[in-house]
Specification:
2 domains; 301 residues; five-stranded mixed sheet; alpha+beta
Amino acid sequence: MNPLHRGRGSTSTRVQMRKGAASAPAPLTAQDTPRDGYAEFLRSTLPRQADTVASHRLGQERVWLKKAGPRHGKWGYRVMALFAHALRLDIIKPVPNPGGEAAVAIEARRLRQLGAAGLRVPQVLAQEAGGLLLSDLGQSHATVTVQERIEQAAAAGPAALLAVWREGLEAIAAVHARGAYLSQAFDRNLVQCPDGVIGYIDFEDDPGETLDLVDCQVRDWLSYLHSTAMLVRAAAPQAAGEHWHAMQQTGASEAVRQRIAEASRRMRWLRKLPASRRWGRDTQRVRALARLLGRWYPDRD
């Protein structure tokens, strides 16, 4: 499985602890294990690899080489920044993706930090300024994203969908229990490994550079809900709400819970966004998110 797949305490505190630029991975290529190991393989292969992300096999081991990509466009950042300002919600402000060597350094640092915290993330096997060589989360065995599992479970009915959806909630709570956070905590970036453990991918940006820990964790919860809201709302919104609040009580701090409730109140006008598909998938997702939160956090006025 491609480990790079695809899509508040004190406000003075900044955490030093991301949807990656992953294009479709190149075909798996067989290579002999280099005499000098991973670092030599990265040095020799990096300038010859055309794709941003490609998988390779070194002996019996599958690895992934990710090259530095271009900086993300600024227009989308400006639009989202204005949107966040209008809602007075710092937690939805876009996190700048610097691209290039800076993004490579950020991803390497975050993977090492999360790995040191005992979380299942790809291991950084070698690092150059222009790219990373990463281990395969499946250790050469098949993996599946939570997104794929939810879509498959939806065909089996609401109970099956909610069971998988709750696993994603539990995976996010496990990160937060270690005083950490993800970034792009969408269902596509949560990967079930062969042993059943859910791993985490995509760390090219770091919200902790601009937000405190509480806001980073709130972003994780809302990112996951944003990516799953349409299916959850269509299947079993009431039962999902019970799962959500139960998980929030055991897996989120009081500060995080308060900010999610506040975000729900400020996003309530988004429930009136048009439902038509012609407005785009993102609009539909935001509308579904706002309506779920509105149901789970009813207005008090």
